[in-house]
Amino acid sequence: MAKRKAENRSFLDKWEAEYLFTYVKDKPVCLVCGVNVAVSKEYNIRRHYETKHHDKYKDLDMTQMSQKVEEMKISLVSQQNMFKKATSQSETAVKASYIVAAEIAKSARLFNEREFMKKCMMKVCDLVCPEKKQAFSNVSLSRNTVADRTCDLATNLYDQLMEKGKDFVAFSLAVDESCDASDTAQLSVFIRGVDSNLCVTEELLGFKSMHNTTTGNEIFEEVSKCVTEIKLPCDKLVGLTTDGAPAMCGKKSGLVGMVREKMREENCAGELTVYHCIIHQEALCAKALKMEHVMTTVTQVVNFIRAKCLNHRQFKSFLEECGSEYADVPYHTEVRWLSRGKVLNRCFELREEICQFLETKGKDTAELREQKFLCELAFLCDISSHLDALNLQLQGRGRIITDMYAAVRAFKTKLCLWENQMLQGNPCHFPCCQSIKAQISTAVFPCAQFAEKLSVLAAEFSRRFANFDAQKCKFELLSNPFAVDVENAPTNIQMELIELQCNDTLKSKYDAVGAAQFPRFIPDTMPQLRTQAAQMLSMFGSTYLCEQLFSSMKMTKTTHRRRLTDEHLRSILRISSAQSLSPDIDELASKKRCQVSGLDTSD
């Protein structure tokens, strides 16, 4: 050991000219054959030179040897750069294939369309930058390659979500189910998690294909698998939002009941808060108006115009001849939230043109011209517009449940105002009603009847959103903690709440950043308030993300693409729905080797 320490293992510059060696990455490298010597000892280097290259270079003097060394070093650097360039080009081609795969997954395109794209790329390259043709040719976009890339991207996103899940202090789930083009039931599970820094992550947790029945027990099993696979403990689950179907919200055999039972079995300290999707409930509230007879008549008229091609063409020509502002009437689709309001508005605006067209077809328009019907149509048109405006307020990603509840509360207050104004014969916020009222006798316009309907609608909102009203105190702790009555707050946060409300610096910060961002500035010395904020931030107010995903699913798995596998469908939807996360393409490309596409690019 002492002898080894005493030896000089440093590479000496004179060995370059004497033995044609250089030092690369902590290893002596022969400039002639490129062999590495394991140990930097003169004996080893000299023995290699004398046994391999001495006879070839023995006649050169030291000056010639030095020149030869410089030439060989330049050649070595050139070779290294060539290999680095080849590696860089290969990795760039792989990255490009991943980027294209991600973009086309987001646009719900077919896998085999990538080959068409490759041909287009090559033809553009021939015209714009022919010297780069080989680089473009190296980008593999074959069907199988892109399918594999799509799965890799989805797996990377899931791994990132699993890693983020380790830091979650609270999370909630949104669960919904729908059928695809092949009549396979698809269960979507979204997670909204909040970490210790009160940053929110909102992503697709699982998308499960259910080929048999969809009972509460089966849905529970699939949701449990999703949570177990990501290794999240049940005691951090604080909220569950569903579409309100019996299989979802059943207290015993439904998903909600089984999740609560599991939490009791595991002795979870927290209580599960369950919500029926706010947007679904808002749509259900509208049914309390009981004005289906008006909608039925409108739907029949629209179907008469649109169902037959000849009628549809003639109606559009008729509108054009009349110089109408509108060119057509849309179909009514029950499952589309905003469809009813759009159809009613269009039919109201074109009511005279529609009646004239129907008369040319020999149809009786007496009902459509009745004052009572016109008044009801105008009222339904106006109230549907207000409901659609609320619906749009509730839609969107990243919506905080307190903001959604505030929008519903504001709408309930508006209903009370509208009711009082309607009783006074002043429909100032109902433009269609104002238009009809100006055309007919004021005594004929049924203000009292419409005021009663507004009262019924307000009562329905209060009934359906009673569970949200019960959470009002918790919502205020997030939306405006400085206005909360401390005596009404939970006892475990009262002391911290007093400290918060008396802190002028935090009050200034709240005024500056707003309610949504303020929880991040609550100091660590107030752990109970931070925990309360994390739980509220993690809550889903609706299943909007699930509905949005199902819309993407319908576009992806069409009747012409029924053979799309469950794995590929799941991967495409995970990529297209990703919001908080993005695939690490550099990491994925570093693990792959470039494969030149087999597509013929000589055309």
UniProtKB/TrEMBL annotation:
Residues 13-56 form the SPIN-DOC-like zinc-finger domain. InterPro entries: RNaseH-like_sf, SPIN-DOC_Znf-C2H2. Signal peptide: none annotated. PANTHER family: EPM2A-INTERACTING PROTEIN 1. This is SPIN-DOC-like zinc-finger domain-containing protein. It comes from Oncorhynchus mykiss (Rainbow trout). The lineage of its organism: Eukaryota, Metazoa, Chordata, Craniata, Vertebrata.
